[in-house]
Amino acid sequence: MNINATLFGQAVWFGVFIWITMKYVWPPIQKAIADRQTLIADGLAAGERGKHELELASKRSADSLREAKVKSAEIVVAAEKRALQVIEEAKLAARVEADKVVASAQAEIAQQVEQARAELSGKVADLAIAGAERILKREVDAKAHAEMLAALKQEL
């Protein structure tokens, strides 16, 4: 056999093999490679989106936490102000009530003083009559005595 014919036959069959491979085998391999590249690219993009969304969620949670702290501080300040206001209102109410009690006590004292004066005036008048009766040892006109005693009461 001739080496040139063998080499030529092998070259032809190699060409046919390459043509069949390029026609029937290579397209599915190319498609599988392209699909795999697309799948990997989509996975990487999804990973990047997830990472970005995680960063955004972290920022939102930090902002929410900050807002919650600010609101809680505002609520605490408002509660403290309200507590001071309630204390001041209670003090004012206590002062008003104390003033009412003092005024009532002063009115009662004034009434009792006036009553004591009236009783004392009556007793002084009675003592004056008794003293006068003892001194005079006789009875004088009762009407005249009553008028004198009334005048004395008015002076006292």
UniProtKB/TrEMBL annotation:
It is a single-pass membrane protein. NCBIfam families: ATP_synt_b, PRK05759.1-2. GO terms for cellular component: endomembrane system; plasma membrane; proton-transporting ATP synthase complex. The keyword Transmembrane helix applies. It comes from the Bacteria. It comes from Candidatus Accumulibacter appositus. F-type ATPases have 2 components, F(1) - the catalytic core - and F(0) - the membrane proton channel. F(1) has five subunits: alpha(3), beta(3), gamma(1), delta(1), epsilon(1). F(0) has four main subunits: a(1), b(2) and c(10-14). The alpha and beta chains form an alternating ring which encloses part of the gamma chain. F(1) is attached to F(0) by a central stalk formed by the gamma and epsilon chains, while a peripheral stalk is formed by the delta and b chains. F-type ATPases have 2 components, F(1) - the catalytic core - and F(0) - the membrane proton channel. F(1) has five subunits: alpha(3), beta(3), gamma(1), delta(1), epsilon(1). F(0) has three main subunits: a(1), b(2) and c(10-14). The alpha and beta chains form an alternating ring which encloses part of the gamma chain. F(1) is attached to F(0) by a central stalk formed by the gamma and epsilon chains, while a peripheral stalk is formed by the delta and b chains. This is ATP synthase subunit b. The keyword Isomerase does not apply. One of its GO terms (molecular function) is proton-transporting ATP synthase activity, rotational mechanism. Belongs to the ATPase B chain family. Keywords: ATP synthesis, Cell membrane, CF(0), Hydrogen ion transport, Ion transport, Membrane, Transmembrane, Transmembrane helix, Transport. Pfam families: ATP-synt_B. It is found in: Cell membrane; Endomembrane system. The gene is atpF_1. F(1)F(0) ATP synthase produces ATP from ADP in the presence of a proton or sodium gradient. F-type ATPases consist of two structural domains, F(1) containing the extramembraneous catalytic core and F(0) containing the membrane proton channel, linked together by a central stalk and a peripheral stalk. During catalysis, ATP synthesis in the catalytic domain of F(1) is coupled via a rotary mechanism of the central stalk subunits to proton translocation.
